Amino acid sequence: MNRYLLPLSVLGTAVGGAVLLRDYVAGGVCPSKATIPGKTVIVTGANTGIGKQTALELGRRGGNIILACRDMEKCEAAAKDIRGETLNHRVRARHLDLASLKSIREFAAKIIEEEEQVHILVNNAAVMRCPHWTTDDGFEMQFGVNHLGHFLLTNLLLDKLKASAPSRIINLSSLAHVAGHIDFDDLNWEKRKYDTKAAYCQSKLAIILFTRELSRQLQGTGVTVNALHPGVARTELGRHTGMHSSAFSSFTLAIDLEDHLYRYTKVDRIL
Question: Which residues are catalytic?
């Protein structure tokens, strides 16, 4: 029996450590029970992952939810799922391609025309460590979608958000921003060998800097601006990486998204 003791002890320690790591990277617990009846919420990239679960939870809390997504088939399916689960029929799908400035302008113009108020803008959509792709307008994809697309969208909706105050802007960043460096002479990686990780970190740092400056400019307007790291969950964001390929990472990242939503994610900053 003694010869099995050490291996079992090591195994137990490893499993326990993995469980603790999973709980740690998921973040803290969101205590808010607030409801948002009558509040209009826009969530970008809401057809899957944390964006969909954010829209689902805010739908449960009575909001008028607008899912803003590139793939309308998936967006309509997500909106249908949320309506069915929450019995909130004020959940709609709208087309928004953050890799196209034209699409962003068209989406914002429609929102301004159709919506009396916009109370919450959740800039959630992102791409992570994709190949060296470019947006329709020639920007490096990660910088273009993660930062520039949301930068334009936010500014186009800013007057509507001010008129709807108190209102909130939530920018999804990442702890990856601490490793970020913005090369203003080569934002699009045209002069250097493309580094998918560095490009991702650059985009997330840009979001932090944008949020800090926008928060400063909006002081006294009734519009609150926050950026945050939502914790780690297994979503489609990592499809261009190998982060889900090992058994260890799969276990560590196998955090139920509905449970994750009650942790330190966007909801406690939104409400």
Answer: 200
